[in-house]
Amino acid sequence: MKLIIVTGQTATGKTNKALELAEKYNGELINCDSRQIYKGLDIITGKDIPKSVESRWSLVERIDDFDIGFYSLPTTNDQRPACQLARPIPIWLYDIVDPQQHFSSFEYAQCATAVIGDILSRKKTPILVGGTGFYLRHLLTDMAQNKVEPDWNLRAELSLLTLNQLQDKLKKIDKDEYEGLNNSEKNNPQRLIRRIEITSAPKDLQTVKQTNNDNYLANLLGLKSLAFEWRFFFKEREELELLIRNRVQNRLDEGAIDEVKKLLDKGYQENDPGMKTIGYQQLIGVVKGKCDLETAVNEWTVRELQYAKRQKTYLKKLERDLYIDNLSAQ
RNA sequence: AGGUCUGUAGUGAAAUGGUAUCAUCGGGGUCUCCAAAACCCUUGUUCCGAGUUCGAAUCUCGGCAGACCUG
User: Fold this and answer.
1) For residues A249 and A148, what is the distance between their CA atoms, to the nearest angstrom?
2) pLDDT (tens digit per residue) in A169-193
3) Which of A39, A77, A197, A267 is most solvent-facing, going by the fewest CB within 10 Å?
4) Which region ranges are annotated with the description Interaction with substrate tRNA (predicted)?
5) Strand B–CB A314 distance below 7 A
6) ipTM value of the model?
7) Do the Cβ atoms of A24 and A229 come closer than 8 Å?
8) Contact A23, A84 (CB under 8 A)
9) Is the Cβ atom of A190 within 7 Å of strand B at any atom?
């Protein structure tokens, strides 16, 4: 039994590769992109579903508040003319939550574990596709150091504090914890808030014994073993810039602005979790008349490039941490 | 052609004649429940030439470039 993981930078052709592998290994795709989990964010996040097949979404089960289901990717798609399929291929974990809902890597790991188990039980090959390295790490390794769940009320309260106040607060609760942080974390409000959240939770939730990392996911699924096969996709900046520029233009041509208008009309706001996404942030400015299209497009492109760079840093590190053999050349 | 104003990192700006600064971009990184997020580190600049001065981005002269005004 194996799990294939197709990951890498944005705009580098992961989905096509995943579809190719799905044909070869009788596989089903599982989205691993932290933005495509949101309902209604389709064009700008680049979901690989044609507009005409909304009805093909099939809800299979609900895990907590999350809708778990799949789209059947049709054998041909205008978005990928070069890639024709012999049969429709399912893609799971699109459209899990509403853009107003919070969704974390922990929750992603729960959903993905369930889907992987299901696919394997049907004797098919699960193929993870997506560039969210943190989700992959959470899914494939044991990251549980505590059982402290996000407390959004506490986070909202703490987010009103200044950086210094947050630092002081953490120092007061747990001086060693604060001193142990590196410079980047000490100045990072989000990280400080999480540290405060953990250290002010009941003691019995604060530590958890870790399991053996080697077989973490296999153990969760009750399997003897599960092999991982990795494909990484990276590109040099110059090429990436061209790809991203084209992609941004394509998304505009496909109706990106209308998508943003539709979401705003439905009442979604700039700071809803799903809306804090590259592309949406810039186009909201255009729709609200605060920004001209050219400026927005440039910023959108720059943000995508910066994001792609962070992806490379994170995924390279994941690669080192997990001693991964990369098969992307094959 | 004449006049006025302006030339400072790739870009936008700051600097009573006294260590050229900030933002952004670029490069590198951090991150065990917000990760398309948040944060940390970092390369690089006074249009050219001459002069005044202990010392010039700053003052003077000449050149070059741009913007605007007037025939």
Assistant:
1) 42
2) 999 999 999 999 999 999 999 999 9
3) A267
4) 33-36, 190-194
5) yes
6) 0.92
7) no
8) no
9) yes
